[in-house]
Design brief:
Layout: E1 4-7, H1 8-13, E2 18-23, H2 34-41, H3 48-64, E3 68-75, H4 81-96, E4 99-104, H5 105-108, E5 116-119, E6 123-129, E7 135-142, H6 145-161, E8 163-164, H7 165-171
Parallel strand pairs: 2-3, 3-4
Antiparallel strand pairs: 1-7, 2-5, 4-8, 5-6, 6-7
Amino acid sequence: MSVELRPTIDLIREARSTAFHYECRDTYAEPDEDDAFRAFLHNEPFDYRGWFQDWVTFVQELAERGVSVSRVRVVTVPHSDYQRWSLRVAGLNIEAGEDIRYLPRHLAQDVPPDDWWLIDDHTVAFNLSSPDGRGTETAAVTTDPAIVGLCRSVKERLWSISTPHAEYAQVTPLP
């Protein structure tokens, strides 16, 4: 099995048809989210659209090329502060063209413990973090058939039992 380290954004950019993100952590420590998350926690005004515009543009460019971007977020209920914030800003992802679904952890059963991207159903990129939990913007990438097959089956199973954002938000009050 070969693994290479690559910038995650470059791998997503190279997608030809699909970019799927499996997310299973209840909290993240992403440096580019610090100010937005802090504003949410303190109920302060924040220009979320301006802050998120680069990602919106990126996803729209992918969509124009026919690439679909989707995610399943496995979340603990009750939600962590980060998940409540994430639920609130997910509308921007959806406006950009992403399809996001949610699955309460207690319904997910056996799931992998690490986040990953599945690109075009043949490449898996595991998100990497520094020892303090900060995202590194780098992924451990593999095309190993056994790992890809496992991730593909997890994607299919979780997608079939997860709830689209709009429905999930109706039963989960947005902050």
